[in-house]
Amino acid sequence: MSGMNGNGSGNGNGSRNGHRKQRRHGAAQPGTELMGSPLLPGGYFVPKSRQVHPSKRMRELLASEPYLFGPGVYDPMTAQLVMYYGFKAVYFSGYSFAIGHLGTTDMDLYGSVEIADAARRTVSALRKFQLTCALGDPEKNIAPRHLHIPPVIVDMDGGYGNIFNVARTTELYVNAGVAAAHIEDQVLPKRCGHIGGKALIPANEMIGKLRMARAVAEDCGNPEFVLIARTDGLSAVDAPESARGLDLAIERGLRYLDTGIPDLLWCEFPTSDRGPVEGFCSAIRKRFPEARFAFNWSSSFKWFNDPNPVTFRELGEMGVGFIFITLGAQHATAHGLSVLLEAMAEREEQGYIELQRKEWAPETDFPSRSHHHFSGVPYHHAIGKLYDAARLGREFCEALPEEKVV
To answer: Which tens digits make up the pLDDT trace of 51-105?
Structure first.
């Protein structure tokens, strides 16, 4: 399925109603080549892009799209929802992971192995979800969906230590099937780019981390691993250089690009104001006309109060190749659950019944409304039968009325 283009609609998918119609009939994106898989019964297919390495796929998308947008997620389920709705990239947010994994803030309080394992499980879950959707549910007349697996871009913070910590983390990410990662130039322990008190490491130390990440990716057999260099120079309060705001961020960005290592450059901005963004991109491109940028359309900003918020399309025209909203899934999950909890606190079981009515209303498209289908029960029965697993197969399922159970 296609991701989002500059006008907010899916390329080739038309309106949201078109999205639904296409999914119900199981159509693939035009031009999608399909193939069989030993992990599917005969007659079912997945896109051939399943066999394309995620880093290569990301590079292809960066080269062919006006920009690549990745909603921010923090676990396998939220990533699967991003994939279901046709987005072409998944951003695995460190701040979201800190909240979702530890219930804490973004101040280097989790380790490299923790986030690398979460990324590994997310990549694995997307590959499994592709198979689940490719089968659909023949018994319930749910048509197959031929979804591409979006490349996963993962936060590497400041590398969790020195260059050898960067080496270990990069190896874990590459071997997990992660497509890309970003490293920032903050002193450790780092903090969210929108929390005060940031300090910078020397530029040459940051360059060493970038060099190590590239060397490890190549040594692991993935020279196409996408590296994003981030600078917090704009709003850092302490640095080896004199604090010069945007000028320092530009200087840092140019030094990182001078190495030829980063594929994308990211400057963290303190507000939604468009002026600094335009100034940064313009200054960098004076020396590097083909430079591409990453941009955090941050959940820390009150975009609804901005009279003229910068659009994805405008960012793409500035040279931004990858756009992401760090905590989008976190805010949506907290909002949705808060609505349910408030309703159940007030109306008990009726609060949950109200949720189900919304999930199952005609013409809605909530893939998780049947948690059995979303998690792959029909797939497990079909493949279990194919591989002679005990007590797996449709004949072991109770014949229950569809109006009573999911």
So the answer is: 999 999 999 999 999 999 999 999 999 999 999 999 999 999 999 999 999 999 9
Instruction: Compute the distance between CA of residue 328 and CA of residue 310 in angstroms, rounded to an integer.
Output: 17
Burial of 88 (0-12, 13-18, 19+ CB in 10 A): buried
378 touches 135 (CB < 8 A): yes
Residue-wise pLDDT tens digits, 294-338: 999 999 999 999 999 999 999 999 999 999 999 999 999 999 999
CA distances from 142 to 50, 367, 379 (A): 22, 11, 12
Strands 152-155 and 180-184 come out as parallel
CA distance 119 to 300: 23
Residue 205's closest CA among 242, 176, 234, 164? 164
Contact predicate 250/292, CB 8 Å: no
Let me know how long the chain is.
Answer: 406
What's phi and psi for 68, nearest 5 deg? -110, 125
Catalytic sites, residue numbers: 192
State pTM to two decimals: 0.91
The CATH superfamily of 16-333 is Phosphoenolpyruvate-binding domains (3.20.20.60)
